[in-house]
# Entry
Amino acid sequence: MLKNRIIPCLDVKNGRVVKGINFVDLQDAGDPVEQAKIYSDGGADEICFLDITASNENRETIYDVVDKTSKKCFVPLTVGGGVRSVEDINKLLNCGADKVSINTAAVRNPEVVIESSKKFGSQCIVVAIDAKKNGDKWEIFTHGGRNNTGIDAIEFSKKMEDSGAGELLVTSMDRDGTQVGYDIELMFKISYKVNIPVIASGGVGNLDHLVDGIKLGNASAVLAASIFHYGKYSVKEAKEYLDSKGIPVRI
Amino acid sequence: MNVTIVDYNSGNISSVINSFREVAKDKVNIEVTSDLIKIKSSDKVVLPGQGSFKSCVDALNKINGLVDTLSEFAINNKKPLLGICVGLQMFADVGYEETETKGLGWISGRVSKIDNQNGKYKLPHIGWNEINITKDSKIFKDIENKSHMYFVHSYEFVPEDKNVVSATTDYSSNIVCSVEKENIFGTQFHPEKSDKIGLKIISNFIDI
# Structure
């Protein structure tokens, strides 16, 4: 039976982890490679890096991080943030990323999704959808949640599936950072609309939220950042909890 | 010993390279090349593959003499070869992704889309799934039945002779996820992404 995945996400800025696990025995809490290794040793099903480097001159730092991590972690590694072109995707894959997530570029120019999935295969193309509720629909936001495009998120998810995306990483901008749980309705509606796996993101504050994302939101995988930071919960604890709730996980 | 990972522009093979180098350390030399002479002289060959069946077959055929060299290596000289993902699928006679495409024909069978039972099962089949080991295979030495492996694919290899199947996995139906025919090995899952247990499979292959 296919297992539901738990994916810890690390925010990386200028090659350093911004928020991360704060263990006493950690030699360098800002080192993304060391943090990723702790997650993979702890049973993370995949690792996700979100590059939030603002300035262009420091954008190269992520390639070095990916290169070093992929030589130490042997679970799938997804990298997103600032991915603009087929060439950016190519570079990340060559450095050792297994999947690349595309956000703003997919909205602005869906050709990037079509072209990259043809060139590298759908299995490595994740489209990241940042959506915010407006009335009875959800609208797509880009540029890290700053720009409202007015595009319907549910319709867009179908379009991305048709364009060749292998997975969708769906983040509720209303919930992100609030720790009150995923936007279950959004996750369910998108998951129902498409036949590709959906990764739920945005709003996790406790382990029940992970359960809800899978059981109610119908997500194939759950992504979380802050609950794993500072050791609030370990990936292992999260998996054991999901298992106790009857959700199939890899233990 | 020399193990060659065939680099034929089949997409992203950096994880395959990293994992083999991790296992090999300094004991085994890992070459990454499409050089025919180097392939001929190596002890083992790894055939990775990402993207579609058609794109991989096309990429193999684009390199003059590569298919013949691989056939000579695996079929005539019977040296160990491991196909991963589409690398395994290409062993078949024919594949139906994008369009009907002729495969290597090393193991009779076809590669067709996984039946998603009218949308009941999401495709691609992505994530960790248990393998049911159906026969002793050299690459499964010290691997427990029901171990988890990482999968990402929408097409499955359906061999004619079920005796070549060494493991299956449950998704929509019983999907063939590992084969062994004499010196030819293949995994539909990605040992290079399957954590320590995946590295063990790679190590088993290197140790054959």
